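Materials and Methods. Structural model of Carbohydrate sulfotransferase. The 256-residue sequence of Carbohydrate sulfotransferase from Aptenodytes patagonicus was retrieved and submitted for structure prediction as follows.
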Amino acid sequence: RAMPRSVWELPAGQRRTVLRHLLVSDKYRFLYCYVPKVACSNWKRILKVLDGALESVDVKLKMDHKSDLVFLGDMKPDEISYRLKNYYKFIFVRNPMERLLSAYRNKFGEIKEYQQKYGVEIVRRYRKNGGNSAGDDVTFSEFLRYLLDEEAERMNEHWMPIYNLCQPCAVRYDFIGSYERLNTDANYVLEQVQSPSFIRFPERQSWYKPVTAETLHYYLCNTQRRLIKELLLKYILDFSLFAYPLPNITSEFCKQ
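The predicted structure was written out as tokens:
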């Protein structure tokens, strides 16, 4: 009950985060709060097509996450208030642990910039004699320990809790879609905003390796239980608000 009920009631830093994550389509009168690792690149493609900056959602270009997109945070307070009150607002969510594993595998397994910026520091901090690492060998446990020591509000957006990114108590979303029903939910939203019928939510890229339930269980069952229990508290609002079950990490289950 004590949660802020409007973006103007949020502390300045939290307000800045949510306004920076709300993308605007004035033409179709909607706001979309993007959450990294929850198909946000495809939604950004759709926004660019709707705005005429891209001719098709299937264009095989590397995604530019800044250009040709309009962010609510770049507008004046009265323009922000008008859109929050009158536009259709939506967000897409994902099982929190699955999202974290996806971010871990992608950022530390494939992206040099993240290995150098975060990986080197994580290994140095949590591994004896970790000073020689290039940041490309961060273990999942080390990553989770790093998350435990980070303040949620200061985290990188790829692992910041969805609650902190999109503030679902302060912004009244009309629709909360899920990664698990991605195509159905996305096409429902496109209908709601009356987007042209030729626009369909893009299929997953062929190179994309999704996190399967088995992969997630493998990682969780091979991680200290205490670490996971502590981490669940940090992401508990994402689990409870979006109705995701807490992971089963009992020894009986892990033995299977």
